[in-house]
Amino acid sequence: MEWKTDWGLRGRMGFTMFLLFALYVVFIGVLIEVFNVGILFTLAMFGAFSFAQYFFSDKLALRSMGAREVSAEEYPDLHRRIERLSQQADLPKPAVAVADTQVPNAFATGRNKKNATVAVTTGLLRSLDDDELDGVLAHELAHVKNRDVMVMTIASFLSTIAFFIVRWGWLFSGDNRQGAPVIVAILVSILVWIVSFLLIRALSRYREYSADRGAALITGKPGALASALMTIDGRMDRVPKEDLREEAEMNAFFIIPIKAGFVGKIASTHPSTENRIERLRELEREMETA
């Protein structure tokens, strides 16, 4: 397999991280000024959160989905597939996890190629045929190879902190002296959350196209992934709304987002399934004539 570096993705990841870093500096400055705390304390607090986010984000993502790592004895076929596709992608075999849910989906998590996990749902395993499942697994491995899982994890950190302040900041506005500064911090946090969300959304949409292309290179079957996307998208309508709402917060990492809830409806983290399928069909025609 001839893997070409996607410089468009690299450039977008670099630009997004630069803008998020600038936003990070402004956000820290506002919090220091508003809460009148020392810069060393604030940096130490953010450093601790960053450390936890970087090293434990994979475990948190799996827990939020109710997924657990599974052995080759439990899911031999799934392990064999991921091992074979990892070899084709020139990647170390990632850990394998399964979530017991009707929602047909998959995601990859982890801080680097050597510490990655590919997770699938039981709904996905029941929904796809062999070639379609290979296409979805290859898509997740392409995310790992492109290193965009790590970038998305880091990028989501700032919005997580801002959302935490927006949600719980009112607890610190008990007296008149603290009330106004806390309101300012909450308003700034709302702005930071919106900006960081839009940056993550823009990056996430491109990374899905890149991972689709990567999956086609790994398997040599763009049509299989296109078929899988149609199957998954069609089965989403049959899943209970309660299940969809519970898992919609992981949208940026899923192969197909869950269009449930207010945010899911107004700002999808993924391009439309129709556009992705159209590009895969074009790639399939190119590979057939090459």
Automatic annotation (TrEMBL):
Its top-level enzyme class, in one word, is: hydrolase
Top-level lineage group: Archaea
| Entry GO MF terms | metalloendopeptidase activity; zinc ion binding
Which cofactor names does the annotation list?
Zn(2+)
The answer to whether keyword Ubl conjugation applies is no
Where mainly found? membrane
Q: Where is the active site?
A: 140
Keyword set, alphabetical order: Cell membrane, Hydrolase, Membrane, Metal-binding, Metalloprotease, Protease, Transmembrane, Transmembrane helix, Zinc
Q: Name one GO cellular component term.
A: plasma membrane
The protein here is known as Protease HtpX homolog
Taxonomically, what lineage is the organism?
Answer: Archaea, Methanobacteriati, Methanobacteriota, Stenosarchaea group, Halobacteria
Q: Tell me what gene encodes this.
A: htpX
